[in-house]
Amino acid sequence: MAETKRLTRRAMAFVLAGGRGSRLKELTDRRVKPAVYFGGKTRIIDFALSNAMNSGIRKIAVATQYKAHSLIRHCQRGWNFFRAERNEFLDILPASQRMSEEHWYRGTADAVAQNIDIVDSYDVDYVIILAGDHIYKMDYEIMLREHVESGADVTVGCLTVPRSEASAFGVMAVDDKGRITSFLEKPADPPGMPGDPDKSLASMGIYVFNWAFLRDLLRADAEDPNSSHDFGHDLIPDIVRRGKAMAHRFDVSCVRAEGAPAYWKDVGTVDAFWQANIDLTNFTPELNLWDNDWPIWTYSESVPPAKFIHDEKDRRGMALSSMVSGGCIISGTEIRNSLLFTRVQTNSWASLDHVVALPYVTVHRRARLTKAVIDRGVVIPEGLIVGEDAREDARWFRVSENGVTLITQAMLDARAASL
Q: Which residues of this protein are annotated with the site description Could play a key role in the communication between the regulatory and the substrate sites (predicted)?
């Protein structure tokens, strides 16, 4: 363990948080995907940042690009407790044409390449490249230790997935020692794992490098006119062909309760986002947000406790199988199987069933909402019914493939103007 702690002191986490996340539709119109709210009070990026901090990494950089203001503000407010005098920090690295007046970040690898001088100034031996847009709990110390002990050029974090579902991922073929022998992007016939042909190893987009090796690799890639300057498309396949790439299995480093499955989610669609949030209301959710040993850190507003008022027939403030955050006022509303973020206010004779309501939503009287996602700050008008007539819902709102209705204020304003 002493050696592991020494390794983390010599490592930094570089979080890639510039991707829009267009499959989340209007949820990313005003914010980048890593800044999207999740789980009642956190944002998606908090999982990667918390994993790094809980793993003992105190040097973190976050590269931003698309509509980054919400993300930058969140990091400044919620992650400003690092102390430079203790040689710890969280730096924001916006795309700023540092290398060229013609290019922002051209790809995931280019986001690191444009900041080589900054990473050099951190004086680290190892760099852990992380995606800032996935939900999971992982001890990076374990992966870093494997990387150093194997002498790999790169170690790739890999999920164990059913082979029948692996075509949606970049898939690793590995030998019996875990060395990656090929990398296949969304293959029609994914390779199975040694000893378990019904499972495949899919890339998580997490990479561990020795910084000296990666620095040289990035400089060479930056000069290659045929490269898309991306880790998954260019750098990792090249190392697999010419160097030593090792696979690290997420099952080994996933932080979870004893006997629980390894939890990792890409909440990149409205359906996946809704489902992952609603899953938290289950009796025993697979993702444990109540774990004091591996907390998910975030910015927390100073708000009063949630309040439930009225106790009359058909006008009772109540919530069953639900999560209700601080600052919420549930006034004569029946809430079931729903997740309410900070400062949601609901009014009498309304009902919410399987609803994810982002912060500062107001639901007026007699509204009836089922299987919906409500964007931040939306004001639901009195008597609105959603989730009972898919055709009517689709006239005004976005209805997903699985019947989840996404509601934004712009949609409601357009509806009001047309009625």
A: 65, 104
Helices (H), 259-344: 270-279
**Structural domain of 12:** 7-281
CA pair distance 286, 264, nearest whole angstrom? 10
Does 105 show up as a binding residue in the annotation? Answer: yes
Is 126 a known ligand-binding residue? no
How many CB atoms within 10 Å of residue 149?
A: 11
Classified as helix, coil or strand, 213 is helix
Residue 37 is labelled as binding a ligand = no
Q: What is the CATH number of the domain that holds 122?
A: 3.90.550.10
Q: Is residue 286 one of the residues assigned to a domain? A: no
Q: What is the pLDDT of residues 182-240, one digit of tens each?
A: 988 788 899 888 888 999 999 999 999 999 999 999 999 999 999 999 998 899 999 99
Considering the entire predicted model, what is its pTM? 0.94
Q: Indicate whether 136 and 172 sit together in one domain.
A: yes
Is 207 annotated in some ligand binding site?
A: no
What is the gyration radius of the CA atoms in the chain, in angstroms? 23
Cβ within 8 Å of residue 419, ≥6 positions away: none
Does 56 carry a binding-site annotation?
no
If DSSP states are collapsed to H, E and C, what string results for 113-137?
Answer: HCCHHHHHHHCCCEEEEEECCCEEC
